[in-house]
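Lab notebook, bench 4. We co-purified these components, and the gel suggests they stay together. Before we commit to crystallization screens, I want a quick structural picture of the whole thing.
Request: model the full complex, all chains together.
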Amino acid sequence: MRKSLLAAVAVFPMIGVASAQEAPTQTLRIALREDPDLLDPTLARTVMGRIVFAGLCDKLFDIDEKLNIVPQLATGYDWTDGRTLILHLRDGVLFHDGTKMDAASVKYSLERHIATPGSARRAEVDAIDQIAVVDPLTVKLTLKSPNSPLVAQLTDRAGMIVSQKAAEAAGKDFALKPVCAGPFKFAERVAQDRIVLDRFPEYWDAKNIHFARVIYQPITNTATRLANLQAGAIDLTEQVVPSDLEAVRKNPKLKIVESSGLGYQSVTWNTSHGPRAQSPVGQNAMVRKAFELSIDREAAIQVVYAGVYTPTAQAVAASSPYYSPGVKVPARDVAKAKELLKQAGVKLPVTFTMMTPTNSDTMQLAEVMQAMSAEAGFDMKIQATEFASSLDTADRGDFEGYVVAWSGRVDPDGNLFNFVHSTGPLNYGRYANPEVDQWLAQARIETAVPARQALYAKVAAKVAEDQPLMYIYDPKNIVGMSVKVSGFKAVPDGLIRLQGVTKAP
Amino acid sequence: MQSPARLAVRRFFRRPAAVIGLVVVAAFVLVAVLAVFVAPFDPIATSWTTIRKAPSWQHWMGTDENGRDVLSRVIHGARASMLAGVVSVAIAAGIGVPTGLLAGFARGKTDMVIGRVADAMLAVPFLVLAIALAAFLGPSLRNAMVAIGVTAAPVFMRVARGATMDAATNEYVEAARALGNPAWRVAVRHVAPNIVAPVIVQATLAIATAIIAEASLSFLGLGQQPPSPSWGSMLNSAQRFLSQAPWLAIFPGAAIFLAVLAFNLVGDGLRDALDPRGK
Amino acid sequence: MGGFLGRRLALVLPTLLLVSILVFGLQQLMPGDPALALAGEERDPLVLAQIRTELMLDRPLAVQYAHWIGRVVQGDLGVSWRIRMPVARLIGEKLPVTAQLGFMAFVIALGIGIPAGIVSAVNRNGFLDYAANIVGLAGLSTPNFWLGIMLILLISVNLGWLPPSGYVSLAEDWRQSLATTIMPAFVLGNAIAAILMRHTRSAMLTAMDQDYVRTARAKGLREWRVVIRHAFRNALVPVVTLGALELGTLLSGAVLTEQVFSIPGFGKLIVDAVFNRDYPVVQGVVLVTATIYVGLNLLADVLYVLINPRLRVA
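Here is the predicted assembly.
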């Protein structure tokens, strides 16, 4: 086994541990693939931030492995009518600064999401019209119009409740000293190096927390992340890349906990946004269909992602109850693709440009698609564009095809509305289909699961037919950890929940 | 009486290291030009059945993550690197030499302004400036060359300025001026020839730096576009497979090393040959 | 001397002002709306507009620049857009990391470069001189990031002797700190070693031609004694002075080396900031780097004049 000096420093001085005899003393070290952004639930934008929040800030609701909505700071909810949502809060919950979490804090936090300039939550809670405190443990939300995805939004950052006292005192600097009601409280942050959280002894569910301290370390280089895990310098990494999976599996000191994710990888086509939509791929769904048929998703995943991810042809992940089994991944069929191109009457080869972010795996995926589609008569050029520029370029419609991923949301609305509704802010190609618009709007109002399922099935089928996006695969959450760590529950959202997690000495 | 140029050539060929360097440079240039004929395989032909195979008789440097022949990619990558070296240095010299000539000849305020701009550019770490420029222009080989060229220009400006100032104090230049020749004419006719030698030396050494810079930008995803190979971008994707497929990282890096070393050897030889005072 | 120093100092300010304009101008030209980069996955158009207003992105460039430079003059480098930490604090956190790396690299460079330069000079045009020159050039010709990758592959992955990357501060655990920085320091140092070797060689050759060295030789002192006691001592000052200028090379090299070894220093800070469009950080770091660089240049100039009194008159 490889020996590393890093292993020797795993023990950190403990400070601020509560007096109770059984107070845990261990530290858990978690590797992140990137440095999170602002640690303020209202302003936070990155997926990595959500992982830190799982230790720092409890939410009104949580989700379980099967995507059911379960109580956290709220013990339950009732829809009194389509526009009125009653939240029942947990009694005896304290914030890290010792103040009480009650209906007023919920009102304050939700209003903060709505009113703070630059709030990344505004759109998520936009449906809320009024927030009323009924009694200290009951909140009444009145909506502008019926909105069934709202409760699911409250299982993520929009549902995080912050201490009013601390937030008002800190003002704009709240992200530097966040005060929530999660299992751990904020201790220290060194940018690009670590975020340290200490156990909060008065946490409402403290009996399920078995660490005195948790340290999140951003390690961007995948090989480095793996090496640190192997050396025992970290206990758990939120992501093992598929190419390293084999190495972790072979290592008797390490284990993997996999779960299917909520997001997807896709090619977004520019069908009607500006002059660059005038390409054959943009103008003709048949051409896009031909491109899809020329790609062997399974083989591409095998080559680029060691066969780990799941091929898909729809926005909603297979782990969701709203997945449409009817929309199947088409098998590769080069002959049929050629046939479609002939029917479409386009000039061969069909030349177009695919914009790709510069991550090396995404670029490889593009190279694979380039090689595969060439056999059907496509001449796909790759335009690798640094990520920040690619967003801007896509937003301006200056692209023909764009390889872009989405991290995924619990409610199907979060994977569809913004992307394929004609008014969606992430609808880069300006795809517009009145039927799809109507179904999506209706699915927001509808609360019954079967009715929503039917609507989303229609959307999935229509989108597969029109092909404004070609969905490629569902990624997985591949969490790697030391065999000493146990009790970790993999939930599709990929967060690292610390409740119930223990580490053998 | 031998011409100074002939003397310099003779001095250059007396140094074995410089000659070896020149041979290697020539070999790289030849390989780059004749890549299509030299490479055993198509550098962008993928093969899903031969992914990340170790070096063998068929694939001397193994195959990459898309089953492409690494040797062929290294050979074609030489094109990107040689091109990046030569073109970016041409850009740098094209900007730097005239401004340096101007600064050195005109002196006074012009010199002051040009000098400050060059100082400011030199005060920013080379790679940071190049990264910012390359990100600004968008990733592509052409833009990487422009970014490197612009960033390297102040060095040429300084060399040209220094040489111009030296030359301008020569008697024949002063004489030419005194005879009433227009300034530009004196600069072009009498001063410019004197700065050729130091600029050539600087250019050779700068090609070495530019090759590394192109590889660095490609390594960060700001250079050559896939699937065309460049040594830097090959290293970038090799990083993901460091433990499983180390050959992906070894060969492109070795190619950069050899090419850069060769240019440095030639540059050193040229400096000694053209500027005997240096020794 | 005073006049000389005054003249040199007078050049520093305009240079730094130009640096600030250069960096500010360049990043504003960069593609990629920073507001979009900051807005994350979901982009609410209303919120985008709010971000633009808050960050003054909707104001003319000159106004933005004036606002920023006005603050800088008062010693306020602004706040990171991405994580809201003051830029000065970020720099304060990262500078010691890169400084440690740079110091170690410099020590390594001196340790290799000076002995090699002495040997070269003593064996002028001999085999060892030749060999040292080639080895030195080889060091100069190796791309930093590739050498880094190769070292990780060999020493960490195959031999398991050193941690592959990451960083532990000296205060936390000095042995661990050295273990995490020795490889990157070597990568940075080896290129500078080649340059130092060349400086040492030429300074030694000059020194050995001086009268006092000839006198010492004539007195029958042993050769190595002459070399070390007399020639080297006099060669050392210009070598160190010229070497100090290489700190600029070092900062540039740190950009990629820190990326390869995942060291949270200056280089990584600035590369990440460029990619995240965190402009206040880019501006602050470049300005501080440029100030250090210009300061070192000034110091080297002054030292040089102090050593060579002849230049003072000129």
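The radius of gyration of chain A is 24 Å. Worth comparing against the SEC data before the next meeting. Chain A touches chain C through 54 residues (CB under 8 Å).
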